[in-house]
Amino acid sequence: AHSSQYVAAEIHYLVHERGVDQIIFNDDTFTLDRARVQQICEAILSRGLKVAWFCFARADTVTRELLALMRRAGCYSIGFGIESGDPEIMRRINKKITLEQSRQAVAWANELGLKTQCFFVFGNPGESEETIERTVAFALELEPVLAFFNMLVPYPGTESYSLQFI
User: Fold this and answer.
1) What angle (nearest 5°) sits at the alpha carbon of residue 13, between those of residues 57 and 10?
2) Where does the chain show beta strands of DSSP type E?
3) CA distance 133 to 156
4) Report field, pTM of the whole predicted structure over 0.90
5) Taking Cα atoms as reference points, which of 111, 18, 117, 5 lies closest to residue 59?
6) Where do the DSSP E strands lie in 61-137?
7) Which residues of the chain have a pLDDT value below 70?
8) Percentages (nearest 5) of helix, strand, coil residues in the chain
């Protein structure tokens, strides 16, 4: 990952030299390093940069305070990889995020006015009609602005491929 100073300088350049007013941080998990995110947000605010931005996060990498800072710094939308609404599926895919952590993170983001996006995957090992129904119910419970439901694509050489085709 680029340093927070590098990212802040790049944003400054894009806003002032190129007229950019919206950015997507396409990191898999932008919030993985909270201190870096905090430094980027503080730099955006201290430089007076007017830029709207979106990022991807994990439910276990955010706090209400971090989300509030992100919102003040221009974050308008955040995407969470929730994966499933079934605890057993989450255990099987080794997600290491609880449903309660997802509930809390999405609730905080919703309360702060962020447009929440939640991403779910069907077809994980052990998936059934019942687990799919639990996932859909969980998506409705979370009340994201957008919910995305995708099918698992097990690529050769990945753990999910091994579990699907043994």
Assistant:
1) 35
2) 22-25, 52-57, 75-83, 115-122, 146-151
3) 28
4) yes
5) 117
6) 75-83, 115-122
7) 163-166
8) 50, 20, 30
